């Protein structure tokens, strides 16, 4: 008895198991968790950048630090042994919104994948935006409590999003 010849991935799936992915399944398979630690932690900023609604939770990224940018009201995160950055993780962000986030962050940030710890103790994989111009970071840590949201919405968001 000869086995069935396999020419493509579709041939390797038994016909009874073969089916097309629904749009929701396809979108979910292309989605990522996004860890935010600065302006995007604020719902008013997040919702101006993305179209979807996403579940979120408090999280922390270890061995990184968050510093204020010189002359700006928002931060950059860099790798730093022993550091810890609290933030918000948004779950299963779709590819369209990830592209919008990439554009919003611009060339001074690079999206990388790593571990994030949820407050529940669970570890998950999440993408975050590392700042790639460390010479533009101050030596002051950035604190969300000092963030001037209204000013940021009218200046940075206005410039970046064309509002």
Kindly summarize this structure in a few lines.
By secondary structure, the chain is α+β, with helices and mostly antiparallel strands. It is built from six helices and six strands, in the order ααβαββαβββαα.
Give a structural overview.
This protein is α+β, with helices and mostly antiparallel strands. It has a single domain (25-157), classed as Roll (Hypothetical upf0131 protein ytfp). It has helices at residues 9-12, 23-29, 43-49, 95-105, 149-154, 156-161; strands at 32-36, 56-69, 75-93, 109-118, 123-131, 137-141. Strands 1, 2, 3, 4, 5 and 6 form a 6-stranded antiparallel sheet that branches.
Secondary-structure topology with pairs:
Blueprint: H1 9-12, H2 23-29, E1 32-36, H3 43-49, E2 56-69, E3 75-93, H4 95-105, E4 109-118, E5 123-131, E6 137-141, H5 149-154, H6 156-161
Antiparallel strand pairs: 1-3, 2-3, 2-4, 2-6, 4-5
* Series of secondary-structure elements, N-terminal to C-terminal: HHEHEEHEEEHH
The appropriate CATH architecture is: Roll
Helices and strands: which structural class? alpha+beta
β-sheet strand percentage: 35-45%
Keywords:
single chain, 163 residues, alpha+beta, Hypothetical upf0131 protein ytfp, six-stranded antiparallel beta sheet, 6 helices
């Amino acid at each position: 008895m000869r086995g069935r010849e396999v020419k493509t991935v579709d041939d390797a799936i038994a016909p009874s198991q073969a089916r097309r992915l629904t749009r929701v399944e396809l979108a979910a398979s292309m989605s990522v968790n996004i860890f935010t630690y600065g302006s995007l932690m604020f719902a008013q900023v997040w919702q101006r950048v993305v179209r979807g609604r996403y579940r979120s939770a408090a999280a922390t990224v270890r061995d990184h630090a968050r510093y204020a940018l010189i002359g700006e009201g928002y931060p950059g995160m860099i790798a730093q042994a022993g550091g810890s950055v609290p933030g918000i993780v948004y779950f299963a962000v779709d590819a369209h919104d990830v592209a919008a986030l990439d554009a919003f962050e611009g060339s001074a940030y690079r999206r990388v994948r790593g571990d994030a710890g949820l407050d529940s103790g669970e570890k998950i994989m999440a993408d975050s935006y590392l700042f790639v111009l460390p010479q533009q970071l101050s030596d002051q840590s950035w604190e969300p409590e000092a963030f001037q949201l209204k000013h940021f919405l009218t200046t940075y968001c206005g410039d970046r999003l064309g509002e």
